[in-house]
Structures are given as C-alpha cells and as structure tokens.
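Data card: per-record layout.
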Amino acid sequence: MSSWQARFFSALLRQTFKRKLAAATDAFAARKVLNSGIVRTPGDVVVTPATVGGVPGEWVASMHGSGSLTMLFLHGGGYFACSPRSHRAFTSFFARQGMRVYAPDYRLAPEHPFPAAADDALAVYEGLLGSGADPARILISGDSAGGGLTLSLLLRIRARGLAMPAAVALFSPLTDLAGTGASLVENDARCAMFRGARIAEAGQFYLAGTDPRDPVASPLYADLRGLPPMLIHVGADEVLRDDSTRLAERARTAGVEVALRIWSDVCHDWQLFHTFIPEGRASLFEACAFLKQRALFDRPGASAPRAPDYDVLIVGGGFSGLGMAIKLKQTGNGNVIVLEKAPEIGGTWRENTYPGCACDVPSHMYSFSFERKWNWSRMYATQPEIRDYLRHCVRKYELAPFIRCSTALAEAVFDETRDLWTVRTADGGTVTARAVVAATGALHRPAYPKLPGIERFHGTVFHSAEWRHDHDLRGRRVAVIGTGASAIQFVPQVAKQAAQVTLFQRTPAWVLPKMDRALGPKEQWVYRHVPGAMRLFRNFLYWRQELLGLAFLHPRLMAHAKRMAEAHMRAQIPDADLRSKLTPDYTIGCKRVLIANDYFPVFSQAHVALVTSGVAEVREASIVACDGTEYPADTLIYGTGFRVGASLAPIRILGRNGVDLNDTWRDGAQAHLGLTVAGYPNLFLLLGPNTGLGHNSVVFMAEQQIRHVLRCLKAMRRRAMTSIEPRAEAQAQFNARVQSRLGTTVWASGCRSWYLDAQGRNVAIWPGFTFQYWRLMRRTHEAEYRFGRVKTAAGEPARKEEAAA
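The structure for this 805-residue chain is written out next.
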C-alpha cells in the first residue's frame, strides 16, 4: 500500500504544478515552471563545479569521502529545462551512498536541438574514461529525459566500441518521442505532473525536424542487444508509464538484464522528494543496491577507496540477518547488502528440509515481534511454513534488491588506516563496508563422525541437513547414525517408507511430550481481528517459556521435568529393557531437551532396531556394531547435528594487527554481550557466544541484539566516529559473570554436549532469563566501548584519533 505522503503530494502537484505547466504558452515559459523548484543541498555533501570532456557540470561527493564507484547522472527536464542543480536530490543521495557523482550541464533545446544533448553525454563519458575511470566502476543514471539520454548514450558507446558501464538506473525514462504509448492518453488526467500533450511538445522542441523514431532520439526503437543491466522505476499513474514497460519488454527480449518496478500512487520523479515521500527513499535505496551489486560483484575491480562501498554488510540470510536488514532499512540505513552463500534465503530453514522437520519453539514466538503471523497452521510450525514466513518478510519489506545469494565469503580483513572492512568473496570479488554483521547462525554446517571403513560403503550416504529427496527410501535398509534433535523428527518418517531401519545411538536424549495441535480458522480469525489477541497470546507463551528457564537455572527443579519425561516414555514404550536403553544417565537439561510424540512408538515396530553398542566399522553393504552384530544397509543417514563451533571458522576474520578471530578464540569463544569482540572494530555477531537458549525463542534474543547494533551505529555517527569496539576489560568482566552464572546451572552438571568447547567451557548458552538479556541490551553503555576516527588531510596519509567514551 502506498504512503499517505505519496498520495498527498500527488494530489498537491495535480492541483498546483500541473496546472501551471499546462498554462505555459511556450518552451521558455514551461522551462520557468520546471526550474522553479527549491533546491537544498545536504550539509554533508560537497558540490564542486568542474568540466569533464569539455562539458561543464558539477561533481557531487560526500564530505566523508567517496568509494570506488563513479556515477554519471543525466538530469531530466524534457531536454529543454532543468540542470544539475535542480536534481541535487538525486545526486546528493547517490553521493551519500559513497558514489562520486558527475552531473553535466548538457546543452538544452530549443537553443541546442538534437543531437546536442546526446553529443555532450558521449563527450562526458569519453572524458571519464580518458581520466582513468574504470568502466567496470562507472554507473549511469537518469530521470525522465535524462533516462532516455542514458539509453542514447549506451547506444553510442556500443557504436564507438567503447567499454560499457557496469549498470544503469532509469527513473521514469522518456524513451519514445513519437508519442505512441497508450499511457499518454490513459493517464492524462491521473498523472500528477504532466499532460500527455506536454510530452509531445518537449519532443518537438528537442527534435527540430528529426525523425522521432530515430533510435538515438527514441531508444525504444533501437536494437538493445549488448546493453548493461538496467533498473527501471516508473509510477503506475504516469503518462510515461508505457515508455518504461515497453522498454523493459524490448530489453528483455534482447537479452538484457532488466529490473522493472511499477510504483502505485506516486508522481513523476517522486525520488526528487525523497525527504518527504518514503517511496522516494525506497526507490533510491533499491537503485543503489542494484547498481552496487552489478558493479562490485559482477564486475569486480581492485580499487582501494577511502569510503566504504556499504555502510553495513550482513553475512547470512536467515532470521537474524533478515531482521537486521529490515531494521536498518526502517531507520534510514539503506546502504546495506546481505550476502547469502546459498541460492535462496532462509538459513537453517532452507538448509534443513528433511521429512518431519519442524520447530521446537511455539510458532507464535518463532517470529519477529514487528511481523507477527496470525495464521500459523500448528502450534509448532513445520520447516516449509517457517521458510515461507521468511520469504514473506523479504517480500513485504522489499529486501530482495539488498540480498545477493550464491555469494560465499572467503575472508574479512579490517583496514585500520580507513576503519573499514575489506570483504573478499569465494569467487574473487572484493567489497568494503564500514561495519560487518555476522548473522551466520550455528545450525548449517553438518558434523560428520569418523566411521571406520565409510569409504568402502557402496550405498547412498547423506546428512539430514543435506537430505537427498531424489533418493527413494521405499524398500530400503536404512542405517541412521545419531539420535539428536533432527533424528527424532526424521526417523519416524523414514520408518514409514523403509523396509528396515537401524538406529545407532551413542547417547540417548531426554524427550518430553510435544504439545502440538492444529490451529483452526476460528482461532486464526481471533488472532487476526480481535484487537490485542495476538499480542496477549504471544505474551502468554513468552512468560510460560520463561518459567521453564527456572529449572535450567536451578537444577533441583528439574526433578519434575524428569518425571514427565519418564512418564512419557512409559506410556509409549511398554518394554522395560528398551526403556532402559533409551533412558539417559545425565541430568535432564544438561543436553538439549527434545520434544516429540512419534519418536518412541517407532521402536515398537518390528522393522526398527535400536543399537546402543556403537559402530565398529562400515562395510560395503552393512554396518558392524561394536558387539560384532552386522546390520545390512544400503542407505546411511547422519543425524549427527552440526559443527556449532565452526559457525565462523570458514570466514577468515582478521581484526587489528591482522589477528585471526579463530586464533583469538583458540582458548574459547567470547564476546562482549555476546555481540562484539575487542580488537575487531565494527564487527557484530548476532547470536554470538553465550546467547543461545535452552528454554525460549532465539528470535527474541536476535531482536534485542539488532536493536543494540543500531544503537552502537547511532552512537558512532553521533560522535562523528568511524569505529566502535568493546573495551577488553568490559568484555572480560562480562564473560567472567557469564561463566560464573553458568557454574550453578543444569548445563554444568557434567555431561558432554555441543554447548561446550574443546576445553569444556560453555560458549553457547545464555545463563539467565531472556528478559534479563533484554534489560541488559536496552541501552548502549558507551563507557564500555572504545570509539575511533580516521582523519585524512590533503597531502597527508590517513591517521587515527582515539576517543574515550
């Protein structure tokens, strides 16, 4: 739905500007109306008059420095009006996103008819190339007539055999001076700024007798093959709508990558009013995201800019990464990129697709507080429904342009001379960012135990996180290794198909009943339509889950949970000997407590066997247990969990003095508030060390951390600083308190779990209630942080000034 600001502004322009323009008697009167806008240049933008390629204009750059990208911006105005000055809303926005923008003051009609403007645009581009600009780092953008001029320039670049720019962004481009678009008539009354007849008049001023279908004058009629990727934004009510839609269709047919978006209830060039209209900011941020991805990733270069390419780079497209991106956009920080190694977003809910995959946290708690879902189908959501929820969030909050999938990171290196991170991708690309947010999660790197002889096995082998959906299990003899959270979900489903299932158990798990049920349409209706019902139910679930935390923090209270688990087992397993094999010998809660209603009954089926003696070796068509029994198998499935401690290991993170984070964490991972690490400025770890949970929703924890990251970034900007990191003493004190509290919890009762590192130190779990963490994260204790600033002066190298909090 469009904003009230967009609708209001369109109505206002329709009653004022449009009437004035319609009353103009000639080109000069119309020019006066178009040039009458108020121009404000942001205080943090520097405008420098210049000449490039013999064409006067102005360079627009951020006072904080520019990145590696150069933009050529061609202003609109029907080829007879406006100037670089009138379009500083565009150029200053791009400049504030780290681009160095040149806006030429090209010659206007009717004094300088076609092809004067096109000649000037080509001269500027050749001038940029002549000055050493890398075409792989050049972007071109234009609005209205400037959009048409951008396309004309591309055609002439191709004709000259020059290197193409990386990408272009077109805002309501004027591409057909012949005036054949149906929207010129259909939207004549609806368009907030122009009558269709005015577009035709502008064409006559410019063409001065030239055929309006000349491809350079009207690029819609050109051969568009070989042009660079283009983004096109246009309003649904504009008279120029069809100039964009037909261009997009023809460009796609010619094999050009096109991103077309049609916006509702916006005026022509609504981006000019981005300080008032939310859609204006959204459009420009989306354009920046499109342009930067094509220039920085698709055509990587090797420059070293003073300013970063992105303000924030997020690693990971799961719950926490998407939540971070949404909140950055909502707070006006749109210069952000999300890098996802997989072909699609979703994190653990994309990776894990095994049969029966579901969440063990109540559905209504496993969602963002700002995007509550009223129509969950069950109390405990299944993997497809959670994945679809995340896809919905991407669509609703328009994140797609800010996400780059199939892009794995190789390393991130902090540059102390510039206070930014240089991030290298696995395919050789390089980008820079002021801050890096690692939202990689922990449940996505499968753990494979070393089984003797596994290389000899002739059957099919896969991990539950890499499920082979193409492998038909019907009639198969399946061996399952492991009895963790994934195994108890997929084993009952496998047992429905396989001829034989042999489950090799090293350590049994405590299993409680799963209070699951379907949520019918009546209940969903209440959550959707009754004010406060959804919030009330969510709060009830939250505090119910928090009460469970009492038992984890005070092990004596676990006696009741143990009795529940034992009763659950007795009710589902009549065989006392089998129950003893499935009963753990450690305190309930020391390892992850599982919930299931269909796991234990599986072992009463004749074709399911439980083996507790361990695996001695794997042979070509069987698995031999440690007691010597041989079990035939043609399929082996690992249900052995994940390498939780390696959630950051594949990403080589080098902080101050080139120190690797893995080396810093060699004796145990730790972070201040579980979020930031001393010696690694501007690095934030969502769901980092000691922020995992055993009793409530980690989405709640992630949201608190996201808010804290925003506060840290805000504090850095408010102080005019370029780096923030925790003080080592603050980090040490926080982690000492955490480890001290963990010592009295159920997690310290002596069992071995994935919560512990190689030294036996719990680096995963938060030893308290989540509301305590919420209270801790409510505000930024700036005294616990160290701020820094990079200053550069003409003729001097970069130098660092430290600032105490």
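Known properties of this structure: The chain has 22 helices and 29 strands. The mean pLDDT is 93.

See the next section for split statistics.
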